[in-house]
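Structure ticket #2291
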Amino acid sequence: MSNELLEPQKWVERYADMMYRYSLVRVRDPEAAEELVQSAFFAALKSQNSFAGKSTEKTWLFGILKHKIMDFFRSSKNTISIDPTSDKKSGLIKFDSSGHMIQKPGDWKLDPEKTTENNELAQVLAQCLKGLPEKYHRIFVLKEIDGISSEEICNEFDIKPTNLWVILHRARNQLKQCLELKWFQTK
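Resolution: structure written out below.
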């Protein structure tokens, strides 16, 4: 596909809903998600002549959207605390004064491939993800869903790799405990 084959007049119809959902999962703010999609479309219109055709139109648009989301996180990083020691006693998992979990999550003993096929579990997981504190949510989504490198995340949020791993560890454990409460106790 070359830039002559781009169809900007069809972008909204083809991609707006997908891009909005993609943004909303990451920023958790409907207005911000809408603005990010609009900003991505505007940036794509401005730079459509530079489209090299090395990817599909959709991939190219989502790449622009990813950059807009990173810009959003950069501009708002000062509004959230990224200090993983600041909330040892908040959230679903409790920590002692040295930062260790007081009660560790249980072993689920599940086949991950069979479990991921379950739509109901996916909905509960999405709820649990929404329930993470903002700092955990942002970093977890960037690392585990978007596949952004640890180095880039550390640079964006001005944190050390050890802080990143503590945040990711706590986010995973909070997700696991939430799933234990909302999913596995009902099954």
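Closing remark: The mean pLDDT is 79.
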